[in-house]
Specification:
The complex is a heterodimer of chains A (641) and B (251). Helices cover 36% and strands 15% of the residues of chain A. Chain A is built from 17 helices and 21 strands. In chain A, helix 3 packs parallel to helix 12 and helix 5 crosses helix 12. Chain B has 9 helices and 7 strands, in the order ββαβββββαααααααα. In chain B, helix 2 packs antiparallel against helix 6. Classes of the chains: A alpha/beta (641), B alpha+beta (251). The interface between A and B is large, with 80 and 77 residues.
Chain lengths: 641, 251
């Protein structure tokens, strides 16, 4: 059934592939770059860095963002840091080690060649950012400071207080702003991409909606690059920003771009739990808290609602320390999340909802003193207090896992091109380099690697064949047809006239996804979820209501389109989770676990990337498999006991 | 709790006026924006157009949310964006007045949404270091004294929300502009373009129609990231030295 997916991995030794590729990739001469148009969708780390770098090279770039400014993109919310194999600490780090840690952290489900390239360019990212004036943390001698993060034995994470994403994004935004001033990049704020346009089998442009006026616009280009982030909001509640969505990627998928590993979702263990039905989003509390906080729940269900300070030691279950004595509270994200779910499923979760565990600092405060705890975690404790109204110095924090990142995304080859010629995907939007689980501080690295140092080279391979194409007209039947289809869908949404709000459908979709395609999945639940999502979709198109007009600023209409796309994606995620009869990284199938309840991979049958092809609404999508070949790395089982 | 909301509506059938809404059942654990979500869902079900307001990360870092709440940009709590204000700070029967960020340079687009693209254009005028991708030397070849780097960081913490403009009686953008000028002027990487940067960013700021600074310091008081007015003083020094001491300015 599988069509051969050509991942275009260069030949040669793993350490030579990228160097050799760069030496042989066709180039576009400076005088020809002026004749080439490139569209970038999104202005986060990947989008802003790609737009700036391609503008500097002399291409005509258009950059679109649905925000009021490119600086709002969700990359800004990343807290922890960015990895790079600088080995400034002389602690044994190297490009190879970063490569190895990333492959292993991804549970051996990522493509070796891409990950090695990522590790290679990681060092140049830090140089570039520092040159731009990004204020990374420094030591007293004035040189850069590092810290360690989960899943590694070296200190290779560069950070800027708890605002690393913000500072990196502002750096890229400033580089982008410079190109805007120079006229190489034209910026379109408050414009949302609603479709790609295919001409003769190539992606030749996009249809965008001006969010202020509702006007549809056609834009053509020789290449289109989607840097549109992840789709965690399919779960309704996640740590993603409110406007994060899958629409650009999903529309491209419907036009022929394969979707890679959609079921790989990262659930972050330490988030502030849901407090009510009205809740709109979840807030992440940094992973670093688990260095000193101890996770526990009461041993007896009747103690669930008791003041935790009144529960004696012998009635508490420090379940991570009990199950994983070697790593204790510092097990990786996927393990910690599942363990919290298990105790809550057993009816021991705390708080009104029963969906929370304690993260207790009493021992740390006794051992180190409150000032030391305050120095290490003060800003996080303040944030927690602001949101919950409780003082975590006095009462244990309540936390629960939440959807945080999606490793899946559009399938891309070594060039970052999707299965559609001329259409690229960068950053979280592609199925990426993280396999089935992403390590902390690697998302920022990948977004900037793609935009600054990979795409500017690889895009030349395709564009060198486009130098004689000339500018692409938008008054052609293909553009007309695409615009017409977008207009029809908008009309359909605005005229729904049902009884239920779009928000309520999104909430219900999120519940199905969280319950049946969340931290733990099983075949029966996934089959039910597919049926439930189909029914929900049918109900949406019959009974949803979208207020306002289509030729106006109308956030409810924007939301309706996005939720409709999420409802299609949700089904695909379930199909993907259902076909993968193994557990790996963030994908945990209850039927496939060891005696001790750990993930059980099946390398013999599932060591592949699942790349899904759209076959039409209500049709079964087609699965293509890209086998993962490990030439360099020896595949092993992860253990944290 | 029961609350009254007096909200500025503008656009569509509203000519620009306050409209009062009642919310019968506000949970004290809700965030301010979740409270507005509840109002909007109520309006949608009544077939009325919801109140347009901007928001995104809801974690206090993206700078998208705005609102003047009872006369204060980002509401009553110090060092806090609107999205991080929670309803437990209000009481049964309170009336809350909600307005957009008002400034000539921030035209209202709809209800509580304003156009802050002037800030983008100020950055485009010179708020960067001109270094192309790939030109950088090794990161540790530029040592920067820890405290100096920390000062630069304090200025770089600006989220570009525009509260400083909304808080200022002159609708001045001096705090925003000076934060970027300070961030780069305090770092060795920013030295080459230092004079040119301050001159062109201030010229753009004036061109956008922002007012002058008269040392009220409301900007600092209402800034959710507590950016210091010392940055304004630094920008003024930078400007004077660029105007009077620079060969380029004379030419």
């Amino acid at each position: 059934m599988a069509t051969a997916l050509d991942s275009k991995i260069p030949t040669g030794n793993i350490t030579e592939k990228w160097e050799s590729y760069k030496g042989h990739v066709p180039l576009v001469a400076p005088n020809n770059k002026r004749r080439i148009d490139i569209i970038i969708i999104g202005s986060g780390l990947a989008g802003a860095s790609a737009a700036a770098s391609l503008g500097e090279l002399g291409y005509n770039v258009k950059c679109f963002t649905f925000h009021d400014s490119p600086r709002r993109a969700h990359s800004i919310a990343a807290q922890g840091g960015i990895n790079a194999a600088k080995n400034y600490q002389n602690d044994g780090d190297s490009v190879y080690r970063l490569f190895y840690d990333t492959i292993k952290g991804g549970d051996f489900r990522a493509r070796e060649s891409n990950v090695h390239r990522l590790a290679e360019v990681s060092t140049a990212i830090i140089d570039q950012c520092v040159a731009q004036g990004v204020p990374f943390a420094r030591e007293y001698g004035g040189l850069l400071d590092n810290r360690s993060f989960g899943g590694t034995q070296v200190s290779r994470t560069f950070y800027a207080r708890g605002q690393t994403g913000q500072q990196l994004l502002i750096g890229a935004y400033q580089a982008l702003s410079r190109q805007v001033a120079l006229g190489t990049v034209k910026l379109y704020n408050r414009h949302e991409m609603l479709d790609t346009v295919m001409v003769d089998g190539k992606c030749r442009g996009v249809i965008v909606r001006n969010l202020l006026t509702g006007a549809l616009e056609r834009h053509s280009a020789h290449a289109v690059v989607l840097c549109t982030g992840g789709y965690g909001n399919v779960f309704y509640l996640s740590t993603n920003a409110m406007m994060c969505n899958v629409t650009a990627g999903w529309r491209a998928h419907r036009r022929g771009a394969f979707f890679g590993n959609p079921c790989y979702t990262q659930i972050h263990p330490t988030c502030i739990p849901v407090s009510g039905e009205y809740q709109s989003k979840l807030t992440l509390m940094s992973e670093s808290l688990r260095n000193d906080g101890r996770c526990w729940v009461p041993k007896k269900a009747e103690d669930r609602l008791k003041d935790p300070r009144q529960i004696p030691e012998e009635d508490r279950d420090y379940y991570l320390e009990r199950r994983y004595p070697a790593f204790g509270n510092l097990v990786p994200r996927d393990i910690a999340s599942r363990a919290a779910k298990t105790v809550c499923d057993d009816g021991l979760g705390v708080g009104k909802s029963g969906l929370a565990v304690y993260l207790d600092f009493a021992d740390a405060i006794k051992r180190k003193g409150r000032p030391a705890v305050e120095a290490a975690y003060g800003n996080l404790f303040d944030m927690y207090a602001k949101i919950t109204g409780e003082n975590p110095y006095e009462v244990p924090m309540r936390i629960y896992p939440a959807v945080h990142y999606t490793m899946g995304g559009l399938w891309v080859d070594y060039d970052l091109m999707t299965s559609v010629p001329g259409l690229y995907a960068c950053g979280e939007a592609n199925f990426s380099d993280h396999g089935a689980n992403r390590l902390g501080a690697s998302a920022l690295m990948q977004g900037l690697a793609d935009g600054y140092f990979v795409l500017p080279y690889t895009i030349g391979s395709y564009l060198s064949k486009e130098i004689r194409t000339g500018s692409i007209p938008t008054n052609t039947p293909e553009f007309e047809q695409a615009e017409k289809e977008v207009r029809e869908r908008i009309d359909q949404l605005i005229n729904l006239g049902g009884q239920q709000s779009v928000e309520s459908f999104h909430r219900r979709l999120g519940k199905i996804m969280w319950d049946k395609c969340g931290m733990a999945r099983n075949a029966e639940g996934l089959k039910q979820a597919i049926e439930e999502i189909r029914a929900l979709r049918a109900e949406f198109w019959k009974d949803a209501f979208v207020p306002g007009r289509s030729d106006d600023f109308n956030p409810e209409l924007e939301k309706a389109w996005r939720v409709a796309d999420f409802m299609e994606l949700g089904e695909l995620m379930c199909h993907d989770a259902l076909q993968r009869n193994e557990s790996c990284g963030g994908h945990f199938r209850e039927e496939y676990q060891t005696d001790k309840g750990e993930a059980q991979r099946d390398d013999e049958n599932y060591m592949y990337v699942a790349a899904w092809e759209w076959k039409g609404e209500g049709e079964q999508p087609i699965l293509h498999k890209e086998p993962l070949v490990y030439e360099e790395i020896k595949v092993v089982q992860r253990s944290y006991e | 709790m029961k609350l009254n909301l007096k909200i500025w509506r503008q656009g569509g059938k509203f000519k620009g006026e306050f409209v009062t809404y009642q919310l019968p059942d506000v949970n004290p654990d809700m965030s301010f924006l979740e409270m507005l979500d509840v109002l909007n869902e109520q309006l949608v079900m009544q077939r009325e157009e919801p109140v347009a307001f901007e928001h995104d990360c809801r974690e206090g870092i993206c700078g998208t949310c705005s609102l003047v709440i009872d006369g204060q940009a980002h509401g009553p709590m110090k060092g806090t964006t609107t999205c991080q204000v929670h309803m437990r700070h209000y009481h049964e029967g309170d009336t809350i007045v909600i307005e957009p960020f008002r400034a000539q340079a921030f035209p209202v687009l709809k209800d509580l949404v304003v156009d802050r693209s002037a800030f983008d254009r100020i950055i485009q005028a010179g708020g960067y270091v001109s270094v192309n991708t790939g030109q950088a030397q090794d990161a540790n070849a530029i040592p920067i004294e820890k405290e100096q780097a920390s000062h630069a960081f304090d200025a770089a913490a600006c989220i570009g929300c525009g509260a400083c403009v909304a808080a200022c009686p002159n609708a001045s953008a001096m705090l925003f502009t000076s934060a970027k000028i300070s961030h780069l002027a305090l770092l060795p990487q920013g030295q080459v373009e230092r004079e040119k940067r301050v001159l062109s960013m201030i010229a753009q700021m004036d061109k956008e129609g922002f007012g002058k600074c008269s040392n009220v310091k409301a900007c600092e008081a209402e800034c959710p990231k507590e950016i210091s007015v010392e940055n304004i003083a630094r920008m003024n020094r930078e400007y004077l030295s660029a105007v009077f001491a620079s060969d380029k300015a004379m030419a």
